[in-house]
Amino acid sequence: MILTLSLLWTVIICKVYTLSLFEARCLRFDPGRYYSNSTVTALAFIPAKTTLQFPDNDQSCKRPSQLIPQDICRIAMSLPTSHRSSIIFEAWFPSNWSGRFLATGNGGIDGCIRYEDMAYATSNGFAAVGSNNGHNGTTGVSFDENDDIVTDFAWRSLHTITGFGKKILHVFYEKHHSKSYYLGCSLGGRQGIKATMKFPSDYDGVVAGSPAVDFNHMISWRGSFYPMTGGSGDARYVDQALWKGLVHEEVLRQCDTLDGAKDGIIEDPTRCNFDPGALLCGSDAVHAGSTTCLGTAQVEAVRRIFKPMTGAHGEILYPAMQPGSEDKASEGLYNGAPWPYSLDWYRYVVYDPSWNGSRMTPRDIQAAESRNPSNIRTFPRQLHEFKARGGKILTFHGQQDNQISSFNSNRLWDRLNIGMSGDLDSFYRFFRISGMNHCNTGPGAWVFGQGGGVSAAGVPFESSQNILAALVDWVEYGRAPEHIVGTKFVNDTVLAGQHFQRRHCKYPATNTFVGTDPYDVDSWECH
Ligand SMILES: *[C@@H]1O[C@H](CO)[C@@H](O)[C@H](O)[C@H]1NC(C)=O
Ligand SMILES: *[C@@H]1O[C@H](CO)[C@@H](O)[C@H](O)[C@H]1NC(C)=O
Ligand SMILES: *[C@@H]1O[C@H](CO)[C@@H](O)[C@H](O)[C@H]1NC(C)=O
Ligand SMILES: *[C@@H]1O[C@H](CO)[C@@H](O)[C@H](O)[C@H]1NC(C)=O
Ligand SMILES: *[C@@H]1O[C@H](CO)[C@@H](O)[C@H](O)[C@H]1NC(C)=O
């Protein structure tokens, strides 16, 4: 009895002692020594379950605070990247470190640190880094007349924090990291692909979601919708209620059951040849104010929206928007106003602030493509170096992505597959996530550990249903994922429990319904 008690005390004392050792190590750390002219803006031990506040973070980032699940040492610094640019850097080093390193990415054209991805990574034992990608907030104003800030945005910020992060991690833990990872979606997906091209030794494994590759064309494509529809009041304009209540319903009527199941989820939108002609009103008199049919100009606008973007000679420059996404795209890309990211890119990078987004001609598209600052394009034909060093890439794309057409990820795979002479599968795998919008949300089984709030915490860190865990398994144990099981939670609320799960297939395989209950994971087969 006495022995047990004293053992217990030893355990408790040891526990307290280890914690305070880690805290002391954190507080005496001096990362400024390892980067000239840097400024340390925060150095603190953050105990598990703290809600960390970021009072200085740009409000447009909409990230005023973050719950920290594990004990971490938080390091925040400002790192100059040139005489006229610098980045805000964060490193979160967990006390219970797995030995792995992970860098996080950004989104849109923003300079917003993905604190939620850093928290996700540290809660799974990774030492995580992130940055503001060279500027603060969601606009592109700071790109104006400053190509150094654009260079940070294109690749330099991520590469810098990766090199610096690994360096201070070594000093901090007095140990090298075992493996190095990257996790990002959207612009973050592009950042990950760019790193595998330009700095193939930066990461052993990369999760690159819904990647904004072929970036210049993508920016123009996103800027092409407003010129197609005009603003509200224009004869071509289709309002949100019509997109959601009429067009989306018609898309589902024409395409939902192509995969065998009527569940509001289109497994493979490449099979959906949506014809908006079915929605044309009998006469223009009927059309006025109608909620059940569209006018001639509206049908024509919808038709154009679902066509690829072409250049001066009709050549395809960017694939079509995939049908199924209109429910959400009506709130953004088709909302009758210039798309803010494209507007800013043309204003502050391609042209000048007089650009108002009212046109998108082949000449404008070419101007963006030629400008290609710091080679931001990111559209590889091959990744030989990354493959040769043993690197692995997992990518995914929501099949109703409302911001970047998922058809572009099919195109990237097809292009790489040719460039790598058919040998992609040994290091690059792409999963199509049916019923998912841009990076997250949607009617499908969209939670699979891809980072970002609920999607991270919802499923266990286990390779069958978590894409980051699957990547670790592939890199460290050579077990490559054949599919990724996604989870749909009731009301998208983890605590409300699972609604259903679905296996997402490895491209080019598609999911086919072979059972009786679409919400049974075994009712589907990848062919
Ligand atoms: C650090 O700052 C000094 C003074 O502003 C400058 O001369 C020097 O080039 C900077 N060093 C680096 C590595 O940026
Ligand atoms: C950018 O945001 C950080 C806080 O995240 C702040 O310390 C820094 O001063 C900001 N920079 C500018 C140029 O506003
Ligand atoms: C530390 O992390 C490992 C997995 O990396 C986990 O099994 C263990 O429970 C963690 N310990 C604590 C005290 O959080
Ligand atoms: C946008 O700019 C063009 C000139 O490039 C001009 O003709 C057009 O009227 C402008 N539209 C608006 C809404 O300001
Ligand atoms: C789901 O959300 C709706 C609306 O917020 C609510 O009425 C419903 O009770 C919720 N269902 C469950 C199972 O939580």
From TrEMBL:
Source species of the chain: Pseudovirgaria hyperparasitica
Protein name: Carboxylic ester hydrolase
Residues in the signal sequence: 1-18
Key words, A-Z: Calcium, Carbohydrate metabolism, Disulfide bond, Hydrolase, Metal-binding, Polysaccharide degradation, Serine esterase, Signal, Xylan degradation
Protein family according to the UniProt entry: Belongs to the tannase family.
Gene Ontology annotations of biological process type: xylan catabolic process
Top-tier EC class: hydrolase
Source domain of life: Eukaryota
Pfam families linked: Tannase
Single GO MF descriptor: metal ion binding
Source organism phylogeny: Eukaryota, Fungi, Dikarya, Ascomycota, Pezizomycotina
EC number: 3.1.1.-
InterPro entries: AB_hydrolase_fold, Tannase/feruloyl_esterase
